[in-house]
Every structure is written in C-alpha cells, then in structure tokens.
Design brief:
The protein is an all-alpha fold. The protein has 17 helices and no strands.
Length: about 425
C-alpha cells in the first residue's frame, strides 16, 4: 500500500519541483542551440585544451551509474537480505545516470549530427570507439537488469491501479509486466534470469569503467600516463556512486515516508561501504603521487605544481581533505554516523568527485606537449548551462520514476518476510 501510494496525485511542491527542473533544462537547450549554431567557440575549449567541463561531467555521471547496479548485483549475489528495500532505486539510478552521461558525449562533439560518423567511419583501434560500444552495452544490460526484477511489481500495479491512473500509464504497466501471473514456471524463469543478469552486470560494469580509463591513459599526456587509471576509475566510480545513493535514499525515504523500510541500518551499512571506498581512494592517490614524484620529470613537476601549489591547488586539497578524509572521520564516530551526518559526508564526496573529474581532465590537458606557454581554460556560460541542464535531466528522470514505477522490490520483500527468521537473519 505504501508503494502504491507513491503514484498518487502531484502536490504543489512536486509540481514546482518539476517546473523548476524543466526550466533549467529549457535554458540548457537554449545554450546548446547557441553552441550548435556558432560552434564550440562559444565554450572555453580551444585546440590546446579541447576537453573541459563536458567530459568531466560525462566521467562523473558514468561513475555514479556504477555503484547502483554493482552494489545491487554484489549484495544480491552474497544473499545480503538487508539490501532488498534499496536495490530498485539503486538500479534505476544507474540507467538515468548512464543516459545523462551519454548525452554529454554528444554535446562535446559540437554538432549532434557527427554521432553517426562514429558508427560509419569510426576507427576501431581507438579507445573512443571501445568506450562508445562499452557504454551502449552497459546501458542495455542495465535497462534489462532494472526491468526484469520489476516484472512482478509491475503486474501488481497493473492489477491494483487499473482505472485509478491514466489509460496510457495503465497500458505501460500491462505491457511491461509481460503477462505475469506468478505461477511456479514464471517464478523459476524469473529467478534464473535475475541470477544470470546479476553475474553479467558485474563483469560489464567493471569492464566499462576500465575501458573509460583507457580513453585517458592511452594518450601521451603526462598526467594521464598511468597504468593505475583503470583502478582509479573503478573505485572512484564506486565511491562517488555510493555517496550519491546515500543522498538520494535519504530524500526518497523522507519524501515517501519509507522509514519503516529504508532504515538507519541501511544508512549505517552504506556509510561503512563509503568509508572503505574512501580509504581505498586515499591509498591510491598517495601511492600514485609517491610513485611519480620519486622519479619525476620536468613535465611531472609542472603537473604537480599546478595541482598542489598553483591554479588547481584549492580544488585538489578540498577534494583530498573534504571529499576523502572527512567522510572517513564522520563514519568513524558513532555520534556523527547518523543519517544527517552521512548525507553531509556524501554531499562533500559528490562535490569533491566532480571536482576531481574536472582537474583530471583540465589539468591533464594543460601540461604542454611541446615547449610553448601553457594554455588556460575557463568554462563559459554555455558549458555551465548545459551541465546544469544535464543534472536537472537526471533529477527529472529520478522524479518521474519514483512517481510512476514501484520504488521498492515488493515481491522480494514479501519473500524475505515469509522466510524463516533464522534464514533472514
């Protein structure tokens, strides 16, 4: 009944929220039309620094996508029953974040019409092509992994909301439930399909973020020339994704009054996972700096000065202490390990990881490849407008999903409660 209630009428606050998101998206579309007409010259990017805010946003949203499905799949594989109330929201975040990430790649091309050239005349020796195909496969698998476990709950919506929702919405429930009646054969097929997808999605998620790192590490840029970039991208994605999940879970829990199902225990477990990922990121950052710094070339020293002392120093030190160290300290003490404390820690982590994506891209591009003066880069209003529109689009997708689809895995929660107490414990 609580899940069915989420599809009720829109209140004034919800309408204002959606209207605000639509307004931001509309402004971003205006900025994109401006860019399409005048070219990438309206951005701050030039020939020496040709990647900027768009690619940073692409890597950021691709990272957020990883934690949702990966966490759901790993916890499902380990039979951790506590994850049942939060898996549906996590899986939906993966799909929405991936769609948003893919749009930034198209925006960075300048002209959307260039996309088909990637398919017709793309160089398959280029990691850019590998990344495009990897994102496409990951998005396809994530949509299937979201839809298949949702079939019984969509059938519940089909049966219980008939005549209470618009006809089109009711038809969507009917089509996506694929004639589910809950007979034993269907249940066996469903459990088998979920098990296969669970194993597949883990491999796909890790491979996608490894391939994404190759787009950077296979270039001749000094700051990107690292064999550890795959490790960085995978764990950075897990860290930023966990932080985003904690924030979204807290909002959904309060908005739909799901305190009975998404409990403080869930946040405590997610907080421990966030702290563990943060400590791994601290270790990786320190190890990378020590390894490169011990035999640093002049180019390495230039990159270090930019990062630690001069232009990017405020961003880097906020990232390290505010985004990595602070979450560990908040989780370490019971007094601060509350839902509010974890949301604050996650907020710092999300902002810091976006900053990290930014200085990885821009600082890496700024190191000269030839003996000329370093170039500079500052995002224009067009770039900021389009990135804000991308964030608004992600939040709009999430808002619509929570209002139209079951946000809790009802059938899995029923099975968990029906199981013997000693098994569920």
């Amino acid at each position: 009944e609580r899940v069915l209630a989420t599809t009720g009428s829109w209140g004034t606050s919800a309408k204002l929220w959606v209207a605000g998101l639509v307004a931001v998206i509309a402004w971003g579309i205006f900025a994109f039309i401006n860019q399409a007409q005048d070219g990438l010259y309206v951005t701050g990017m030039r020939d020496r620094i040709s990647w900027g805010l768009y690619i940073a946003a692409f890597v950021f949203f691709a990272g957020i996508s990883m934690a949702g499905t990966l966490m759901s799949a790993i916890l499902r594989a380990s039979k951790a029953t506590w994850r049942t109330p939060i898996t549906r929201i996590a899986e939906s975040i993966t799909v929405m974040a991936l769609i948003t990430a893919g749009l930034f790649v198209i925006v960075d091309m300048g002209q959307p019409g260039r996309l088909y050239q990637m398919f017709l005349n793309g160089n398959w020796q280029s990691p850019l092509m590998w990344d495009m195909m990897a994102i496409t496969v990951y998005l396809t698998c994530s949509v299937v992994y979201l839809l298949v476990p949702m079939i019984p709950d969509l059938a519940l919506f089909r049966d219980r909301l008939s005549g209470q929702v618009p006809r089109f919405q009711s038809r969507v429930y009917g089509e996506l439930s694929f004639g589910w009646t809950g007979n034993p054969n269907q249940r066996r097929s469903l459990l088998k399909a979920v098990s296969i997808l669970m194993v597949l999605i883990i491999r796909v998620a890790v491979s996608v973020h490894t391939v994404l790192s190759l787009v950077f590490s296979t270039t001749t840029r000094v700051s990107w020339n690292s064999t550890a970039f795959g490790f960085f991208f995978v764990f950075g994605a897990i860290f930023s994704g966990l932080a985003a999940l904690i924030i979204i879970f807290a909002v959904v829990r309060r908005r739909f009054h799901l305190e009975e199902y998404i409990t403080e225990r869930h946040f405590a477990y997610l907080g421990f996972m966030l702290a563990a990922a943060s400590m791994v990121m601290i270790y990786a950052n320190v190890t990378e700096v020590i390894t490169k710094g011990y035999h640093a070339t002049e180019d390495d020293l230039f990159a270090f000065r930019e990062l630690f002392v001069t232009e990017f120093a405020p961003l880097f030190w906020f990232y390290f202490f505010g985004g990595l160290v602070l979450p560990v300290l908040i989780v370490a003490f019971k007094r601060t390990r509350t839902i509010t404390g974890l949301v604050i820690a996650s907020g710092f982590a999300v902002v810091a990881m976006f900053i990290e994506r930014y200085f990885i891209v821009v600082a890496g591009m700024k190191t000269p490849l030839m003996p000329y003066e370093p170039s500079s880069y500052s995002p224009s209003w067009v770039e900021w407008s389009i990135v804000a529109a991308g964030l608004a689009l992600f939040l709009l997708f999430l808002t619509l999903f929570t209002k139209l689809f079951p946000i809790l895995a009802v059938w899995e929660m029923k099975e968990e409660h029906a199981a013997p107490a000693e098994v569920t414990s």
